[in-house]
């Protein structure tokens, strides 16, 4: 059995996060000591590592909760259900990448168009573009 601090040290997950995961019912202590300390079984360590790996590939805590329920009840769920979750996450990630590229391109245009000189900010092309909504199409000489 692990106390919360031991589980935290083994995984790098803070005590506060472990308590939050408990509140979300992602991980639950098996028991408590007479003093009220949480005690976790070794399976909790594996479950927490599963949670960490799922977070690393972009799943939200709600998605992880769903994955955990599929994992616990494998006999009543199909691999296709799990695959659909990853396909949905992949599609969402591709949309985010597209949006981030659009943002990057817009920021680069604004940054490249600004001379960054010591002129007054009232003549700043970046501020003007943000105020007017008109796109910057060329570099401005200062």
Automatic annotation (TrEMBL):
Keywords associated with the record: Coiled coil, DNA-binding
Gene3D superfamilies: 1.10.1660.10
Chain segments annotated as coiled-coil in the UniProt record: 83-110
Domain annotation HTH merR-type: ranges: 1-70
Domain of life: Bacteria
Record-linked InterPro entries: DNA-bd_dom_put_sf, MerR-type_HTH_dom, MerR_fam, ZntR
PROSITE patterns referenced in this protein's UniProt entry, alphabetically: HTH_MERR_2
Alphabetized CDD domains for the sequence: HTH_HMRTR
This protein's name: Zn(2+)-responsive transcriptional regulator
